[in-house]
Amino acid sequence: MKKFIILAVMLVSFVTAFAQQSQTVEMADTFRSSGKIYVVIAVIVIIFIGLAIYLFSIDRRLKKIEKEK
Amino acid sequence: MKFIYQTWWKVIAVVLVLSTLITGLLFSVPSLPVLHETIRNLYFHVPMWMGMLSVFVISVFFSIMYLRTGKEEYDLASIECVNTGLVFFTLGLITGMIWAKFTWGEFWSGDPKQNSAAIAYLLYCAYVVLRNSIDEEQKRAKISAIYNIFAFPIMLVLIFILPRMTDSLHPGSGGNPAFGKYDLDNGMKIAFYPAMLGWSFIAIWIATLRYRIRLIENKRNNPN
């Protein structure tokens, strides 16, 4: 009986060791499933839209100056 | 050159980049050890180099056009393309360093890709310095056009060929697979290709803005 228990314990410990070895690659899945990734996307998109509008405004100002010539 | 005054392609470029900001963060990517989520940097780090490359190609084109025709505008277009390319070059280097810190362990590990990118960076900085050191306009234009035509292939060899012939940590080098292997089966292309195209056109747009400013400055400096 004792041998059986020891064997069982060893087997279980092996399983845990093995499980640790084959751990899945950590990805930001909780961040995505909780929906908070949208916050990041919103921030990045707003920054980029701001920069794009800035570029367009420079373009417009240049057009005005070019017309004056 | 009416193209540079039109708006439609600028709008397309902005829409393309906007789409990749969303798809690049939302779409599924392969789970790979070491890389983890940083694989998404592919959508933001690589397009910087693409943007740099497109304006450098245009710059070489205008350098050749200058040597053929001797028109001053071509020279101005060429230098402004290089100036814009250097901005994207810097962004590519910095984003690459940050990515390297979290995957290779160091900001700068003396990797062949990093080292030769740094040499190519100095090569183009030397172009700007050389240009600014010559006072006479025609001489300046001619010498810098020739320098630019030679610098471009050397830059290509340094960044894209030499690191691939040796062992490098960078994907696509020394038997190290490039990301092309991964995006084929995972729909990463949907986010990646628009990013490449969009950022290239953003780079070209900024270059055209700089060129138009340069034209006005040039007219003011030599009124005739």
In summary, what is this structure?
Chain A is mainly α and 69 residues long.
Description:
The complex is a heterodimer of chains A (69) and B (224). Chain A is built from 3 helices and no strands. With 69 residues, chain A is mainly α. Chain A has a domain at 31-69. The longest helix of chain A is centred in the last third of the chain and has 32 residues, at 37-68. Chain B has helices at residues 8-26, 45-69, 72-103, 112-132, 137-165, 180-183, 189-221. Chain B has 224 residues and is mainly alpha-helical. The chains are: A mainly alpha (69), B mainly alpha (224). At the A-B interface, helix 3 of A face helix 1 and helix 7 of B.
Distance between the termini of chain B: 22 Å
Q: Count of helices of chain A?
A: 3
Proportion of strand residues of chain A: under 5%
* Sheet with the most strands, sense and barrel status of chain B: none
Structural class of chain A: mainly alpha
Number of strands of chain B: 0
What is the count of distinct domains of chain B?
1
* Stretches with pLDDT under 50, minimum 5 residues of chain A: none
Mean residue pLDDT of chain B: 89
Overall helicity of chain A:
over 70%
